[in-house]
User: Fold these one by one.
Assistant:
Number 1:
Amino acid sequence: MFWKKQEIKDLTIAKVGVTEFKFYYKNDKEYFEVDVNQRSGYKFIIKLEDYCVSKTDYGYLIKKGFRSYKVTHSIRASDDYIEVIYFFWGWLPFTRSGGTVSKPILELIFNRLNQHI
């Protein structure tokens, strides 16, 4: 059996500390991938059209069923800080990753998420 190669288009990568945020299209669907730590290989991939994305006071909430992700923005020591928190069952924090980020990268991430509200 031959598998059809899935082509990734419009790849955008934003590096935040040891975390990598990726936006890309595969089979005409947009994905948001958070590579928590490249060494461990732990990452989560979100097919944005399958999730409900909403804007909150602190950033964004991405939710589907018992899974939810919070993309938060805060200012720490006069630097912009972005963090993604994965909640299992909607309330149990399971994974947290992030770091300081520049204004253009922060705007890039938020603009891509704004398209799905």
Number 2:
Amino acid sequence: MAIDQDIVYQVNNFPSFSIFNREKIKRFKQDNAIRLRILADTINELMESHVNKDDNKAFKQIVSPQGMPNRWDFKSPEDGDVFKKEIDSFLAKEIQIDI
């Protein structure tokens, strides 16, 4: 999940983040496990429906001239529009997260 990747990034780049927030992170993940799973599953379903995959079955990204991935490789321009609308619609819903 993206939140796990973000936590790993924060811990690796800011060691004090882990020291001061370890219990909060643990409690956050426990208290919100179902909500976070729904979020991850919904985003994954949208990705499966609208984004191409590479030979390794990973979601494909278009790489910028500077060598940085900068957007998903959608199956068609229409898929890109539908994906963006569905993500916006999903994220616009109010979800209560317990901190």
